[in-house]
């Protein structure tokens, strides 16, 4: 790890830090909390998007680890919180290998402090839109063996890419490099064709200048030719809900209807044949 964390601009909001704030974290600044408070106060209940997404990602890592895949690349990983990918994977596997990728300098600094004594987990500061540079980082080259199955995690990150940045081609770039038996997890904001979607999407676009909600059909297209595993694409609160740990709040298949906010983020897990 030779590169140093870049200086942090306290005047500009960060996607990772806003997400951290919505999840109850403390690694954020006033400019991030201002955006988070818009969702908390002006769009009551919208925090559920962040929580249900996080819970689904935890379940996805468990599903992948139980299948025997031992290597994970987490794109747009965000700030460390409870039940990070490496912690979940370690419940099922002995010494899984995990590479976190994010472009926020605070993620790099905090992640490296947290993982200082973990030789099998690293944090790489890189831009999701530059896959070649990610692939060529010494940390990833050291940990990830592309001759063995790899799990690619795109949790709540692809909706921050505009159409002209071709998120589907980005996923395909990586899937061409992984072997049969590898798995790809994607969660993303979905268009609800309602006022809540319009307001939330407009706020993030005006704040960060990018991003787009996508339809279920468009989300499935992101997987390309991969085999989407059961139960297919579902809203995060429903996806493998029965597999949630007892201490993790989750909607069961026969319980209450999801809120309008919980319906605005979906996910699926796919396998490379």
From TrEMBL:
Gene3D superfamilies tied to this protein: Vaccinia Virus protein VP39
One annotated GO molecular function is: methyltransferase activity
Short name of one Pfam family: Methyltransf_19
Name a single GO biological process: methylation
Query: Which of UniProt's keywords are assigned here?
Result: Methyltransferase, Transferase
What's the protein name?
SAM-dependent methyltransferase
């Amino acid at each position: 790890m030779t590169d140093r964390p870049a200086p942090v601009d306290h005047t500009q909001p960060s996607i990772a830090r806003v997400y951290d704030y919505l999840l109850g974290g403390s690694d954020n600044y006033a400019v991030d909390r201002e955006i988070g408070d818009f969702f908390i106060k002006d769009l009551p209940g919208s925090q559920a998007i962040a929580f249900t997404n996080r819970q689904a990602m935890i379940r996805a890592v468990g599903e992948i680890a139980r299948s025997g895949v031992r290597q994970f690349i987490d794109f747009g990983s965000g700030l460390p919180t409870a039940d990070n990918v490496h912690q979940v994977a370690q419940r099922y596997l002995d010494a899984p290998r995990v590479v976190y990728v994010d472009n926020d300098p605070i993620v790099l600094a905090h992640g490296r402090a947290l993982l200082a004594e973990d030789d099998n987990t690293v944090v790489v500061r890189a831009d999701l839109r530059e896959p070649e540079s990610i692939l060529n980082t010494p940390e990833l080259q050291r940990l990830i063996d592309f001759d063995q199955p790899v799990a690619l995690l795109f949790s709540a990150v692809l909706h921050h890419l505009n159409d002209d940045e071709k998120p589907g081609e980005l996923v395909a770039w990586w899937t061409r490099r992984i072997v049969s038996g590898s798995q790809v997890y994607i969660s993303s904001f979905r268009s609800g064709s309602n006022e809540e979607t319009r307001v939330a999407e407009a706020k993030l676009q005006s704040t960060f200048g990018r991003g787009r909600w996508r339809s279920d059909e468009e989300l499935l297209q992101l997987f390309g030719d991969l085999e989407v595993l059961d139960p297919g694409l579902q809203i995060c609160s429903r996806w493998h809900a029965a597999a949630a740990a007892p201490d993790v709040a989750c909607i069961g298949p026969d319980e209450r209807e999801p809120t309008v906010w919980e319906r605005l983020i979906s996910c699926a897990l796919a396998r490379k044949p």
